[in-house]
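# step 3/5: fold
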Amino acid sequence: MLISSFKTTREVFLDPWGLPSALRWENYVEAWNSANIGEGVLNSMLLVGVSGVATIILAAPAAYALSRFGNRGSSTLTVIFVLGLGVPAQAIFIPLYIAFDRLGLINSLTSLQLIYTGTGLPFAVFLLTAFFRTLPRDIEEAAVIDGASTWYTYSRIMLPLARSGIITVFMLQAIGHWGETFFALMVLQDKHTISLALLEFMKAMQYTGARWSVLFAGLSLVVLPLIVLYVWLGSRIVEGIAAGYGK
């Protein structure tokens, strides 16, 4: 895909496995400007970043409380969060659409940010609760002896120790929401995410001579950010998943 993105369409068909005769960066320029792919990339980055941070801000303290303050209520709440993993999107999109329509949030990125944050909370709480349980309690007991409050212990001591789990949650959120299409089609009209822009681009190609090299450039713009993010944070992700599910 990456090699073909630098070729001409003729080279893609005549020598699909060969190297391009020259690096045609104009394919990326055309892909970026075609069918609002540039707007889609920027909007998706904003959605992934804001919803990922918001999910962690809400899920991390909840997970810490559920993992440390053991009582019957915390067990029930944990089960409720886990049940949220089984709610299909098709079961909630109609009430969500009606609610956002009444709030005037149709065709707004805010509505998608709320959806992505809400739908990501069950898994985030589930994973982080298990991750916090793997952290030693001795550190917290030492902090209490030194006079630290519960909030100080959580924010200054335990949260940094849970960095691998937090990075894992953010990365998995990014993977799940970067190319999300169902809710984006539901609430957006004249705005684009990367998935909607790519869909529009593929439709436009049917009537403009099928510029496959430009299409490969557009696909590369979709895939490469996640690959770079995964290469950068890959070791943290494996560590976080192993710790979270191992408990």
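# step 4/5: annotate
The radius of gyration is 22 Å.
# step 5/5: archive (pending)
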